[in-house]
Amino acid sequence: MSDSTKDGSKPPLMDKEKEEKKLLDNWTNSFKSLFSGATDEEIALKEHKRCEKWKKSLIKNNSLIEFMLENLKKSGCEFDVEKHFKCVPCDFKRSGGFSPELGIILCQNRFSSKRHLQDTLTHEMIHAFDQCTTKVNFNNCEQHACAEIRAINLSGECKFLTEVKRGNFGFASHHQKCVKRRALITLKDLDCCKGENVAEDALLHVWKSCFNDKAPFDEIY
């Protein structure tokens, strides 16, 4: 897998992430403009209420979230949705996170839509499933690469229309390209993947087996 330009130089790795962050920041500014004059605390409260509303609606009505909850339970890792699914403000660029100790974090100030929250929640639930069934060492670059490949591949965040909204219009192998791009962006930020080509090599080494591993699904969502 090569990420060099024609002249042999490395392209800016974070360009696509910057594009997405710009779109999200524009949405965030538009959201805040609706509450001009509101304090930061009032805006945070509205964001929290919206996140909680969307979260509860998805848990109650979304078949994908229900499926993941059922499979986590079957695997011996039943989630308390009130205790383990937390809507909190975040000051980093990701929209969510998973910790075996804390559960799933949903970044209430980073969601542009209910669908965005759904993709994030599913992504983190797949991490939770992997941790429950295989005890992933997230401090190991290859194991983390596998976890990211699976979560991105299976969560729905690389659907064609979602990619189009990000400005990615490729047709041939667009899904695989999306999964690789987004996984690499995450890996490049990790301490365990620091060093020249460490993230790229880890991704390449585990790609085939992890991309083809669809558990607990029968096919890509």
TrEMBL record:
Family from the record: Belongs to the peptidase M76 family.
Chief subcellular location: mitochondrion
Lipid bilayer topology: Peripheral membrane protein
InterPro entries the record matches: Peptidase_M76_ATP23
Lineage: Eukaryota, Fungi, Fungi incertae sedis, Chytridiomycota, Chytridiomycota incertae sedis
GO cellular component: a single term: mitochondrial inner membrane
Chain segments carrying region Disordered: 1-20
Recorded superkingdom: Eukaryota
EC number: 3.4.24.-
Keywords annotated in UniProt: Hydrolase, Membrane, Metal-binding, Metalloprotease, Mitochondrion, Mitochondrion inner membrane, Protease
Alphabetical list of Pfam families matching this protein: Peptidase_M76
Subcellular location: Mitochondrion inner membrane
A single GO molecular function term of this UniProt record: metalloendopeptidase activity
Name the record gives this protein: Mitochondrial inner membrane protease ATP23
Function according to Swiss-Prot or TrEMBL: Has a dual role in the assembly of mitochondrial ATPase.
Gene name linked to the record: ATP23
GO biological process terms held by the UniProt record: mitochondrial protein processing; mitochondrial proton-transporting ATP synthase complex assembly
